[in-house]
């Protein structure tokens, strides 16, 4: 076994790999960019080397430099994690040439699976079932169009070199073909430097079911069962689970054996995932093979009790696989939710910023040898701590929340509870969205397919529910507590100042009206106090009010009802976490200056830092509301800036390829009336 390895990655996966190394007594070397000097993975490893600038190409993608650093620090092997250099065959080769072990498959296997079209040609020979489509060499637009017509619409155009759900367009009819092809090619060459595409029949209501495989250098190859990753948004996984609901033993064996055949066809070694797309009747087709450890590998660890990073290390060190196929078992059910810094109410725009407040449910961190799921059945794999930032440079994943239960229902109940206890302030997250998703009828009853989110939009994106007395009382308690502390009131019991009337009474009245903004609503709350105590009045309700605060943890009594919650205050925003909800109440301080109302003023600004990748208009162009004006790329996604109204583009301030900062004005625009 190795005594020291370098981890060529960042974030949760770098920490996760380091955790296993620590358990096995292997020293770890972290690498970090300018943006990551204080990152958790740096603190988590035994040593760390600075490798360059914030942009991935200046640091985490600097193959030669990373190899040099591995040699300089005396590491014997490099673990690439996922993303970055993990599926880069030149890097795998360069490691070998430098006398380092690449903890992953042979370069030849990465090469064979690197192009989706070439991989499909190989799989065809190995008799692995394929989706009807075209994956040939010819790239002539006319030919691709004829192939699509032959296959029958809808078809899916995919970048051969693609990954991460990028470079894919569904084409509903022949009319839409040309525009879709141009857009896939643009995205493919920008993201993967290769605009080759393939065409597939677009299956309706399919499920994404993938098989974890493992092979060693002694000719053994096993499958560690399946993961169902059907719950996706824009072809990116949102929730994953193992085993797949409804899977039969025969089908599991058939898929497992097809996956092993796929791996053997390319001389695979190490951890790999064979992704299949399956029809509701269970028939399945090969989609692609990911030649690395997958983001969602923890659900497999939870049900098999195996540490897949330990397996990777053993295989890379030349040991045989720890278990044979007939020694592997499925125990219980596991679910994983990817917690992202993004805003579900704004088309899931990635959100950057500081995790100013972060409270998580009781959980084990990463994989624990011999104890797959920990006593609470909850595991968190995270690369960030409170106070850390989510920068625009890398994937905006905050953490993976993984739960285990003896069956799917128990796992679901744990997931609901764990999500309700996952509290973040400082940036937008998808936590509330995930909560609605796991509670949805479709997910609860395992009525799974890749269109689940789209089909259930109405329930997954509801109007914000009105807030009740509990949430208001918690915000009021936090406000009074803050005032008491700010004014240094020397109350006998500092934790429950309002039992003594508190600051507001000093202001000269026993009645006080507090006004909060909640979304587009204004909430008027009245507090009255007399010798017998306080009363809280809101809408048509009135209740006796008492509160006790222990830092962020607040308890309120409303007559006979008691409510607990956490309230984190950011300036005048009261973030109330209560009964699984996160409500933001903005206190409208009557003493503060009335905020100047900001109009867009005909400016069109960048919603986040990124790069301009296309400009569709010219100065003087007359456009109607909703016309796409410019496309930006930020955090691996395209964002289209559209005309806010009918009008004329008066100026274009950035050209294609230019980098823009958040809030930068991109275009000047004059509306029709002016
Ligand atoms: P998985 O099935 O494991 O989620 P994905 O293909 O979605 O596999 O990608 C895994 C990870 O690799 C992503 O979370 C992302 O960070 C990274 N990744 C994938 N494709 C790209 C890409 N084109 N550019 C940068 N990172 C990528
Ligand atoms: P990536 O490399 O980005 O992961 P995949 O080929 O694995 O690309 O496809 C990603 C997702 O797109 C799948 O999980 C599935 O939801 C959807 N998808 C891919 N191929 C098809 C298809 N032929 N029909 C319907 N959906 C598909
Ligand atoms: Mg895939």
From TrEMBL:
Gene3D superfamilies, A to Z: 2.40.50.100, 3.30.700.40, ATP-grasp fold, B domain (3.30.470.20)
InterPro entries: ATP-grasp, BC-like_N, Biotin_BS, Biotin_carboxylase_complex, Biotin_carboxylation_dom, Biotin_COase_C, Biotin_lipoyl, CPAse_ATP-bd
Keywords for the protein's UniProt record, in alphabetical order: ATP-binding, Biotin, Ligase, Nucleotide-binding
Cofactor requirement: biotin
Pfam families: Biotin_carb_C, Biotin_carb_N, Biotin_lipoyl, BT_MCC_alpha, CPSase_L_D2
All copies of domain Lipoyl-binding, residue ranges: 595-671
Domain ATP-grasp residues, every copy: 120-317
Domain Biotin carboxylation residues, every copy: 1-458
PANTHER family per the UniProt record, alphabetical: CARBOXYLASE:PYRUVATE/ACETYL-COA/PROPIONYL-COA CARBOXYLASE, METHYLCROTONOYL-COA CARBOXYLASE SUBUNIT ALPHA, MITOCHONDRIAL-RELATED
Protein name in the entry: Acetyl-/propionyl-coenzyme A carboxylase alpha chain
Source organism (scientific name): Cupriavidus numazuensis
Gene designation: accA1_5
């Amino acid at each position: 076994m190795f005594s020291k390895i370098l981890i060529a990655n960042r974030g949760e996966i770098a920490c996760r790999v380091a955790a296993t190394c620590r358990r096995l007594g292997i020293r770890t070397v972290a690498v970090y960019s300018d943006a990551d000097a204080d990152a958790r993975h740096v603190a988590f490893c035994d040593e760390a080397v600075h490798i360059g600038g914030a942009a991935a190409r200046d640091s985490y993608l600097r193959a030669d430099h990373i190899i040099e650093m591995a040699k300089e620090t005396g590491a014997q092997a490099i673990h690439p994690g996922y993303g970055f250099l993990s599926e880069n065959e030149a890097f795998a080769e360069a490691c070998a040439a430098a006398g380092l072990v690449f903890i992953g498959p042979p370069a030849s296997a990465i090469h064979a699976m690197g192009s989706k079209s070439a991989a499909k040609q190989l799989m065809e020979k190995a008799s692995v079932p394929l989706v009807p489509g075209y994956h040939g060499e010819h790239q002539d637009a006319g030919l691709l169009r004829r192939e699509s017509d032959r296959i029958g619409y809808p078809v899916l155009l995919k970048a051969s070199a693609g990954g991460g759900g990028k470079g894919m367009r569904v084409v509903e009819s022949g009319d839409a073909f040309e525009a879709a092809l141009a857009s896939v090619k643009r995205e493919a060459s920008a993201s993967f430097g290769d605009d080759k595409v393939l065409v597939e029949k677009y299956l309706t209501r399919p499920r994404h079911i993938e098989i974890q495989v493992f092979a060693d250098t002694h000719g053994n190859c096993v499958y560690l069962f399946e993961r169902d990753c059907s719950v996706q948004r824009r072809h990116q996984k949102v929730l994953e689970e193992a085993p797949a609901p409804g899977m039969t033993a025969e089908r599991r064996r058939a898929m497992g054996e097809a996956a092993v055949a796929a791996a053997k066809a390319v001389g695979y070694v190490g951890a790999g995932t064979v992704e299949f797309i399956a029809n509701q009747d269970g028939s399945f087709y090969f989609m692609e093979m990911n030649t690395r450890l997958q983001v969602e590998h923890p659900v497999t660890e939870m049900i098999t009790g195996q540490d897949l990073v330990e397996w990777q290390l053993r295989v890379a060190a030349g040991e045989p696989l720890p278990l044979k196929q007939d020694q592997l078992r499925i125990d219980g059910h596991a679910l994983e939710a990817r917690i992202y810094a993004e805003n579900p109410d704004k088309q899931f725009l990635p959100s950057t910023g500081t995790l100013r407040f972060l409270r998580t449910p009781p959980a084990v961190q990463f994989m624990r040898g011999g104890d797959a799921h920990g006593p609470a059945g909850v595991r968190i794999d995270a690369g960030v701590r409170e106070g850390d930032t989510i920068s625009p440079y890398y994937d905006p994943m905050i953490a993976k929340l993984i739960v285990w239960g003896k069956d799917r229902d128990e796992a679901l109940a744990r997931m609901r509870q764990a999500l309700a206890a996952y509290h973040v302030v400082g940036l937008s997250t998808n936590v509330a969205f995930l909560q609605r998703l796991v509670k949805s009828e479709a997910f609860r009853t395992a009525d799974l397919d890749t269109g689940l989110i789209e089909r259930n939009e109405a329930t997954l994106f509801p109007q914000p529910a009105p807030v009740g007395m509990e949430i208001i009382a918690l915000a009021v308690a936090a406000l009074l507590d803050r005032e008491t502390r700010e004014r240094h009131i020397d109350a006998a019991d500092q934790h429950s100042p309002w039992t003594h009337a508190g600051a507001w009474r000093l202001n000269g009245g026993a009645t006080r009206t507090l006004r909060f903004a909640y979304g587009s609503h204004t909430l008027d709350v009245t507090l009255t106090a007399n010798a017998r105590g306080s009363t809280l009045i809101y809408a048509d309700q009135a209740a006796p009010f008492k509160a006790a605060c222990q830092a962020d943890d607040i308890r309120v009594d409303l007559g006979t009802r008691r409510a607990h919650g956490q309230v984190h205050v950011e300036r005048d925003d009261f973030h109330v976490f209560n009964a699984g909800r996160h409500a933001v109440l903005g206190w409208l301080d009557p003493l503060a200056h009335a905020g100047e109302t900001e109009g867009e003023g005909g400016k069109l600004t960048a919603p986040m830092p990124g790069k301009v990748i296309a400009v569709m208009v010219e100065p003087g162009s007359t456009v109607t509301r909703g016309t796409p004006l410019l496309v930006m790329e930020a955090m691996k996604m395209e964002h289209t800036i559209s005309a806010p109204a009918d009008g004329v583009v008066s100026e274009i301030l950035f050209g294609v390829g230019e980098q823009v900062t958040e809030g930068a004005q991109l275009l000047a625009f004059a509306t029709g009336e002016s």
